[in-house]
Design a protein that fits this description.
With 114 residues, this protein is of the alpha+beta class. It has helices spanning 9-21, 27-52, and strands at residues 94-97, 102-105, 111-113. The longest helix has 26 residues, at 27-52. The two termini are 25 Å apart.
Length: 114
């Protein structure tokens, strides 16, 4: 079964439109936006685990089948360059594979643990 990766282009378009129109987000809106973005990333991580039976060792595995695994059904996230795994403040996500669970931290925002 082919899965579709989560499109990030809509987020880029929204950010472009806000910049073009001079609209600034309040801290609460930025936090809500970041919460949604980390939730999407969490979904991609869980889809990866469903297919391969393990969590990725690094987030880049969501984009590329680095270990040539047959059960890999990705990409789970489209590669957008090094900024693919940065939060809305352009800070890199901190991802930790704990074996039976993972931790995903968006620096400056809440920590999502599953």
């Amino acid at each position: 079964m082919k899965r579709y990766s989560i499109p990030w282009f809509w987020m880029a378009f929204v950010e472009f439109a806000k910049g073009f129109l001079g609209i600034e987000d309040s801290p609460a809106k930025k936090a809500e936006h970041e919460k949604k973005k980390t939730e999407f990333l969490g979904i991609a991580i869980c889809l990866f685990k469903e297919d391969l039976g393990r969590f990725p060792s690094e987030l880049k595995e969501l984009c590329f089948n680095q270990k040539n695994e047959e059960s890999w059904e990705g990409p789970y996230i489209n590669w957008q360059g090094e900024s693919t795994f940065e939060n809305i403040d352009e800070r890199k996500y901190v991802f930790k594979n704990r074996g039976d669970r993972y931790e995903l931290e968006s620096p400056g925002y809440e920590i999502n643990k599953n």
